[in-house]
Structures are given as structure tokens and as C-alpha cells.
Amino acid sequence: MHVEIEALVHKDCSQPIIDTLRGAEGIDAMFIETARSNDLFEDRQFGEFGEAAVVTLLVDEAHKVHVFDRLFEACDLHSKAQGVIFMSEPLIRIG
């Protein structure tokens, strides 16, 4: 089984996430997209909006805690309020 770990974080977290999680055990897919947010960050480069990174990880359930913790550390969320991370329940494959 797999879980999906999603994060909406400040754009500056993109490269640390890639550097930290590239080749990490248990990650089957990693997608990082850019977006804009008007309510998550005080740093707003575009008037009312600031740039954000939308991170999606498909992770083997056995490695979910380790990957979640590494993502949390890569974004420095223990000391900076620059995003949120959440994890799904195990995904069920149909078909």
C-alpha cells in the first residue's frame, strides 16, 4: 500500500526538498509544481499573492513517517511558518 504526502510550502523550499528526497527509499513518485497563494505567506512577490510550491509524494506505507519527517526538515517547518504538510490514509488500488 501507498500513502500520498502533500505539502503547500514557500517556493524557497523546492530545491531543499529535491536535494533531501532525491533517491530516498520508499518514494515512488515526486512532483513539485509552482502556484500562488494569497493567504499562506506574508512574503508576497505579486501584490496580493506569494509564490508557493505544491509538493506531491507517493510513498510506500512502510516509509511514510521517515519521508514525512525528512520533508518537514527540508522545509525547516520546525522554526519557520512557511507551509503545511498532510498525509492521506493508505491508498486503495482499484482495477
Q: List segments where confidence is low: pLDDT < 50 over at least 5 consecutive residues.
A: none
Overall 3D shape:
globular
Under CATH at level 1, the class stands as Alpha Beta
- Strand order, biggest sheet? 2-3-1-4
Major pleated sheet: 4 strands, antiparallel
**Spatial separation of the terminal alpha carbons:** 14 Å
Figure out the total of helices. Answer: 2
Order of helices and strands: EHEEHE
CATH architectural designation: 2-Layer Sandwich
Give me the CATH fold name: Alpha-Beta Plaits
Structure overview:
With 95 residues, this protein is of the alpha+beta class. It has a single domain, classed as Alpha-Beta Plaits. The protein has two helices and four strands. Helix 1 runs antiparallel to helix 2.
Entry summary:
The chain has 95 residues and is of the alpha+beta class. It has helices at residues 14-21, 64-74, and strands at 2-10, 27-37, 50-60, 83-87.
Write the layout of secondary structure elements.
Blueprint: E1 2-10, H1 14-21, E2 27-37, E3 50-60, H2 64-74, E4 83-87
Antiparallel strand pairs: 1-3, 1-4, 2-3
Summary keywords:
single chain; 95 residues; alpha+beta; Alpha-Beta Plaits; four-stranded antiparallel β-sheet; 2 helices; globular
